[in-house]
Amino acid sequence: MACCCPHSLSAGRFFSRFARSYRRRFKKKGFEPAQRQLLEGIERVGFTDATVLEIGSGVGYLHQRLLQRGAASAVGIDLAPKMIEEAEALAREQGLAERTRYRVGDFVEQADTFDAADVVILDKVICCYPDAERIVATSLAKARRVYAYTIPRNRWYTRLGVALTALVLGLFRSDFRPYVHDPEKIDAWVTATGFTKCYENLTPIWLSCAYTRG
After folding, report:
1. 6-213 belongs to which homologous superfamily?
2. From which residue to which does the signal peptide run (predicted)?
3. What is the structure's pLDDT at 17?
């Protein structure tokens, strides 16, 4: 089932344009600093033999790296069809096709059709949703043991950058907008469900956090 929200449809079209370049960039340069931090946080809380759900999975290299390091299986969902095409191709190249499954669409709209996973990941995804509380709540409901995300830091320069990006997108008549949501509110929503923060790290732009239940 594909997404029907204009914002999500526009986001899918927007990110599909960059799918091939994302994959090429990763092959050339590897993980971005914030992604390395996110992986470090997930490794710290543990993922051996875990099932993984990555929301906004992009071309798949985050969860595929976890599979290479001991996770059991992974499901990825992304708004951008081209991202999923690249993720499937990358999984085949690495011999991971039998341990991965992919979907195109808006996770919030499809959440009821997903099984719970040991590890749930949202790398630069919450900032793509206008309703942060809804995406956090629906994704938390699928996390058995580990919940990890990367979001923009709430700083004047990130807010300015997001505002300028939104202006440009509006000029191109796109319904997609990025957001800088309050990190303290997100942390409160997560910990209210019984998770404890076990990892936090920063780049100048991004904040990465990992939580474990119990």
Report:
1. Vaccinia Virus protein VP39 (3.40.50.150)
2. none
3. 65
